[in-house]
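Board work, copied verbatim: Permease
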Amino acid sequence: MEKNDLKTFLPLLMGVIAGIVSYIITGDMRSRDPFGILVLVMMIYLHKFILPKFGLTIETKDWLGISFLTLATWYISWTLLLNS
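↓ predict structure ↓
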């Protein structure tokens, strides 16, 4: 796997993990939805520590793409879990 592919795959994976964790934490209580958003922010922040372990440097322009991919997959996976 190339390094640029990893910059795409890891945010997608972290977004799905964030969606699952958000679903587990919030459960059926709608009043705890902000905790799900905190999980998303923490997963985005974890990229700062995980990507350098794979030898990748994160530039300023990369953060927008990382954040968007993580947000999109988090939203989709959490929504699918809530509707199941």
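The chain is about 75% helix and 0% strand.
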